[in-house]
Automatic annotation (TrEMBL):
It comes from Desulfofundulus salinus. It comes from the Bacteria. GO terms for molecular function: hydro-lyase activity; iron-sulfur cluster binding. The lineage of its organism: Bacteria, Bacillati, Bacillota, Clostridia, Eubacteriales. This is 2-hydroxyacyl-CoA dehydratase. Keywords: Iron, Iron-sulfur, Metal-binding. Transmembrane segments: none annotated.
Length: 327
């Protein structure tokens, strides 16, 4: 019997979905890798989504409409986009089953455990099955951690590849075995590779970029991202077998001050020269830039992106000036 595909709006405990024999589908990854992601945004606007709403939300909406085999959605109602509530309602309107999942703002362990167990109830699985799935996924995560280490410690991996393998750990591309083979092939190709020569080491913090040429542009100018904050968090880089604790350590859905603890630790460990803070247009996280700038003691460039596209001339000029200042 064909496995049921379950959409997710951001990283959730996918161990539960895999344990149930279902296939998680990170709608963000499907949207942004669509041949025409801008068209998906326009489709949502034609359906009635306002212009001044985050393009990711509009893209997720149209992605579900396009993929009629996704009839169930796990949506994060606390700890991610504040527009997800309306996304859920508009998808319920067309018959999609929506399962809410909430990360407690204060990282309360009991509340988080309750949320995970409610999710387990919806999918009809127990802890034994979930932990078996965790064990399998952890084998792959460790290999992706190695890609990240080779990025900042051995200088063998570019910023785009670092981004791509880590961001795909949100759903393992719906096929952990195939994804693991991709990871293995990539690691095999790195053996004997020469270290990269970019002199400027950058951190990228915030949600993954909606433009697709940022990393290449930076590397053409002698700068390389050696730390992708949110993407790294998608790999759950924590050595604990306690699933609840692991999603409690995961920083993305919690407050900016907890995220800054991780960011501060990593930029120091990776000897970063400057930070790019990406803020999506119409996202509440833009306000947090105020706090980031006060707390981080490194040069910071704040970039704003709207619709899926390539870097515009103004953004390229700002990146050029930032890199020149760091040299």
């Amino acid at each position: 019997m064909k496995s049921r595909r379950v959409g997710i709006t951001t990283t959730v405990p996918v161990e539960v979905i895999y344990a149930a024999g279902c296939i998680p589908v990170d709608l963000n990854n499907v949207f942004i890798t669509d041949p025409n992601p801008g068209g998906l945004v326009e489709e949502a606007e034609l359906a009635g989504y306002p212009r001044n709403v985050c393009a990711w939300i509009k893209g997720l909406y149209s992605t579900v409409l396009r993929h009629r085999d996704i009839r169930t959605l796990v949506a994060v109602t606390q700890g991610d986009c504040s527009n997800t509530h309306a996304l859920m309602e508009t998808l319920e309107l067309i018959g999609v089953e929506v399962i809410p999942f909430a990360y407690p703002f204060d990282r309360d362990r009991d509340l988080l455990a309750l949320q995970i167990e409610k999710l387990m109830d919806r999918f009809g699985v127990d802890w034994a099955a979930v932990n078996r799935a965790r064990g399998r996924l952890d084998q792959i995560r460790r290999k992706v951690w190695e890609i990240d280490r080779l990025t900042w410690q051995e200088n063998l991996v570019g910023g785009w590849d670092n981004h791509l393998f880590q961001v795909n750990c949100s759903d393992f591309k719906g096929d952990p075995d195939a994804f693991e083979r991709e990871v293995d092939d990539f690691l095999a190709r790195l053996k004997g590779a020469e270290p990269r020569r970019e002199k400027i080491r950058l951190a990228y913090i915030g949600v993954p970029p909606i433009m697709d040429d940022l990393y290449d542009y930076l590397e053409e100018r002698g700068a390389r991202v050696v730390y992708n904050e949110t993407q790294r968090q998608f790999t759950l880089p924590f050595e604990t077998g306690d699933l609840v604790e692991r999603y409690r350590l995961y920083s993305y859905p919690y407050g900016i001050f907890y995220r800054l603890e991780d960011i501060t630790r990593e930029v120091e460990r990776r000897r970063v020269h400057g930070v790019i803070h990406y803020a999506q247009s119409f996202c509440f996280r833009q306000i947090e830039d105020l706090i980031v700038r006060q707390r981080l003691k490194l040069p910071i460039l704040t970039l704003e992106g709207d619709k899926p596209n390539r870097l515009d001339a103004r953004t390229r000029m700002r990146l050029d000036a930032f890199i020149e200042m760091l040299q």
